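[User] I wish I could look at a protein chain and see how it folds. I have put the entry right below:
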Amino acid sequence: MMDDMRSTICPAVTASTPDEFRKQIERATAVAVRLHLDVSDGILTPSKLIEIGELWWPGNAQADIHVMYKWPFEHAALLLNLRPQLIIVHAEAEGDFIAFAQKAHSQGVEVGVAIQQDTPAEVLASAIQHIDHVLIFSGKLGYFGGEADLSLLNKVKQLRAMKPQLEIGWDGGVKPENVRQLAEGGIDVLNSGGFFQHSADPHEAYESLTEALGT
């Protein structure tokens, strides 16, 4: 796990074309080191995003890859060859998560699981010792936007009870108005997508989030 457990603002990159991806990467790396990169298959999600093989990021950045695929482990070798710091798959996906987690850990890559709004935290109990990060998802799969349903913070206590050192992320509706409440609710990584990428000035948007967070 990462040693610094203070809440971090992490710009999200959700792009359907390589050109759009490049533009969003440039905006994100102008203000942050840790990035949240989305890919989706159009099966688990209603939309299809950039292909896994088209992902890239600057050498000074740290990438969390959020894999919104129904069968993510079919792409395990490709994902691991990219050498991200973290790969997040969905609890709602199919396949052998534990085998994937063991392979990733053997290569120095951390693994996370995203849980959608209606998925209870308890579904992760049997695999929790293999999980480094849980992403509480309050957004719209494959799209920017969505509202921050703060009632989902009740999952934090359940997750911490299973594994106190777990890193917990949040995706969906992160704005200056709620970042402090999310952080105080136990969220370590606040992924900002639409608010950040749709802003006229990425520096100003990022600063407004960090200032509201008090960092």
About this structure: The chain has one domain: 8-213. The two ends are 21 Å apart (CA to CA).
